[in-house]
Amino acid sequence: MGSVRLYAAVAAGSFRRYATYRVATAAGVFTNTVFGLILVYTYLALWDERPQLGGYDQAQAVTYVWLGQALFATLALQGGGFEAELLERIRTGAVVIDLYRPADLQLWWFAADFGRSAFQLLGRGVIPFAFGTLVFPSALPADPLVWLRFLLALLLATLVSFGIRFLVALSGFWLLDGTGALRMLMVTGMFCTGMALPLNAFPEPLGGIVRALPWSAMLQMPADLLMGETGALGTYAFQAGWAVVLLLLGRMVQTAATRRVVVQGG
Amino acid sequence: MGEAREGSGVREGSGGAVVDAFIELDRVEKVFDVRRRTGFLRRERRQVRAVDGLSFTVARGEIVGYIGPNGAGKSTTIKMLTGILTPSGGRLRVAGIDPARERTRLAHRIGVVFGQRTTLWWDLPLIDSYRLAHRMYRIPDARYRENLDRLVELLDLESLLEVPVRQLSLGQRMRGDIAAALLHDPEVLYLDEPTIGLDVVSKARVREFLGELNTERGTTVLLTTHDLQDIERLCSRVMVIDHGRMMYDGPLAGLHEAGESERTLVVDLERELPPIEAGPAARVVRVEGPRQWLAFPASQSAAPLVARIAAEYPLVDLSVREPDIETVIGRMYADKETVVPGAGNS
Questions:
Q1: Which of B26, B31, B46 is nearest to B86 (CA)?
Q2: What's the CA gap between A101 and A89, in Å, rounded?
Q3: What integer is the mean pLDDT of A72-95?
Q4: Which one of A40, B146, B196, B229 is CB 3.0 to 4.6 Å from B115, fit for a cystine?
Q5: Which residues cross the membrane (chain A) (predicted)?
């Protein structure tokens, strides 16, 4: 049980660490609100032209936008989590500290990223979401059980999100400079999570493909679960399936990386 | 894979009888594959021997200086001793454990301070890093509190505990890092450049603490440094490594002989004269007006030389300068560099 306490301490520390940057948090809340507004008006215009696009009505489209803004930082949909830090630590060689600790690299960074997610949800996600769904007509469930199911889906989404970004971070052991990998994470994130447009609204066959990719486990599926567009079990199975694949892959890459590690510098 | 070259480097005795070999290296090698782009799509593969047939033992409770120029293989050795890097060949044991195989188990028994990196949590108060170490090393509560109190007192950290690490000065941070490495009572402490960038007062403080740690708690210390004063103050034994090979292993005093170091006699004469002729052992290395500098072997007494000059020349004043370790080691490197083909990877 000792290790549970360790990783809990890592997560708690990470939470507090993000909490120390209040101005950054306030700026984030502001940015997400402004982006939300821009997207909402764009979507409203789009859904005026194409009612029921992707199976959503206008209220659902609006809700989707604010959910996206709330989860943007929480799930690091376009990056901005631990991965940039780990890449930098690999580049500078500071990763020796992480490798030398009597702790597991993947678990350590998951705990740290989970703490960050928790803070970002509370500190940065809740306000734009509350603001947006109060000001605009929205489609939120009244049943608390649905919210509970949604929270569980978010939990699984953190695993998938971490799984992808852990692989991106580990690429640093081979690439040494992670700028390109981060850029790709950002672009694929914007497109494949459905931050730009709900994946339901993508033309076929592109929509089918994108919805099968792990990115759809982060925003699209939890959103559909919250708005009653899809069932809980199917969502969880999809999320858990991708989480297992990505985390196992991460573990394999981690083993390979630490075996060939050439710690940079000094 | 590289062929096992016979380690032809100077392998001095292990510095005293092998009583309780806590750290043991037997012909340890570390070879890195370095790929270099030599043209479009063309790459050249080259092997760099960072550590080349290195053998030494460190007994429990020893405090050993481990020195060498940049790229000599010091940090690579430390990384192998912590299990981060796996040796390409040879045998390596710390407390009977093979570090690369049982890195996590070993980590509970060793402490590491990487001078240029920090194990501390950058954005959070110092105390948070210690609380994390408490969990990470599963230190029993009572022992954690006891150790923390002691380290806080010895390293004067009381007023810093609530300060975010990023706001600490380099010297404060280093003391914080040293405390973090010792909370779990490690049997051995590896210090990789612990005084780098510190001011004189901070350096003295760190040295004093390390000396006490070694004498009072019997902690084995392996100290990597560029600062030769660290060695002079703390270590009775020095290991010098270059190009991944042991160049010298023994007491500090013996280093001078190994480096064929020279002392300098500075002679002030009454007037400008041609270079002094004082026999085969001494030679004039510099003349500036009436002042002349003569170099002679450090192992030799200055008395006969002084007597001879006083008898034959119009002497006004003279002084003898001891060689500093830096030049001694520098000379040692200069000598060996011609023997060992370059393989540095700084």
A1: B31
A2: 14
A3: 91
A4: B196
A5: 21-44, 64-82, 121-140, 146-168, 180-199, 231-250
The first and second tokens of residue B193, run together, are 């450049």
Chain A residue numbers touching B119 (CB-CB < 8 A): 97, 101
Neighbours of A249 (CB within 10 A): 15
Is residue B1 over pLDDT 50? Answer: no
* Tokens 């560029």 found at: B226
Domain borders along chain A are: 2-260
Query: What does pLDDT average to over chain B?
Result: 83
User: What per-residue confidence (pLDDT) applies to B67?
Assistant: 86
Instruction: Give CA–CA dist B283/B286, Å, rounded.
Output: 9
Residue B223 and residue B230 in contact, taking contact as beta carbons nearer than 8 Å: yes
Q: Rounded to 5 degrees, what are φ and ψ at A240?
A: -65, -40
* B128 close to A13: Cβ distance less than 8 angstroms: yes
Pairing of strands B89-94, B63-67: unpaired
Nearest to A100 among B112, B123, B132 (CB): B112
- Whether the Cβ atoms of residue A247 and residue A161 lie closer than 8 Å to each other: no
Which residue is associated with the tokens 């430390």? B78
CATH of domain B21-257: 3.40.50.300
Which of B 188-247 lie inside 8 A of A, CB atoms?
192-193
Determine if the peptide bond prior to A205 is cis (ω within 30°): yes
Query: ipTM of this predicted complex?
Result: 0.86
Instruction: Please write the tens of the pLDDT for every residue from B218-276.
Output: 999 999 887 777 888 889 899 988 888 898 898 887 776 666 677 889 999 998 888 88
What's the pLDDT tens digit per position in A27-43?
Answer: 999 999 999 999 999 99
pLDDT class for A2, splitting at 50, 70, 90? low
Considering only CB atoms, A13 lies closest to which of B116, B119, B124, namely B124
Res B343: pLDDT: 38
How many Å separate Cα B14 from the centre of its chain?
A: 16
Closest alpha carbon within chain B to A100:
B84
Give the pLDDT mean for A140-162: 96
Closest CA to A195 of A169, A216, A213: A216
Quote the tokens at residue B303.
């008395």
What's the confidence (pLDDT) of residue B16?
42
Angle at the Cα of B308 from the Cα atoms of B302 and B313, rounded to 5 degrees: 120
Q: Do B128 and A96 touch (CB under 8 A)?
A: no
Nearest partner of B264 among B306, B321, B330, B324, judged by Cα: B321
| All structural domains of chain B with their residue ranges | 21-257, 262-322
